Amino acid sequence: MRAAGALLDRAAQAVDAARAHTLHDPARWKIQHIGRSVLDGKLPPRHGLL
Predict the structure, then answer these.
(1) Pick from 2, 5, 16, 28: CA 20 to 30 A from residue 34's CA?
(2) Domain residue ranges in the chain
(3) Cβ(44)–Cβ(34) under 8 Å?
(4) Element (H, E) at 45
């Protein structure tokens, strides 16, 4: 049973690490907002995260 618990812990850590690397990439979001502004004329968000 301990091996199964350790495997679940490692899987949870891998998911957390992947989530941090994919969701918190401000440069990627900035590029997307600038692209939307150029192509669609949609203004970027007004918060200071860009």
Answers:
(1) 16
(2) 2-40
(3) yes
(4) none
Q: Chain-centre distance of CA 25, in angstroms?
A: 6
Mean pLDDT per 10-residue interval, the chain, length 50 residues? 66 68 73 90 77
Report residue 19 CA to chain centroid gap.
6
Q: What is the sign, positive or negative, of the torsion defined by CA atoms of 34, 36, 42, 45?
A: negative
How many CA atoms lie less than 13 Å away from 28 in the CB half-sphere?
5
Residue 33 and residue 44 in contact, taking contact as beta carbons nearer than 8 Å = yes
Return the structure tokens found at 18.
């992947």
Q: Compute the distance between CA of residue 24 and CA of residue 43 in angstroms, rounded to an integer.
A: 21
**Distance between CA atoms of 29 and 36, rounded to whole angstroms?**
11
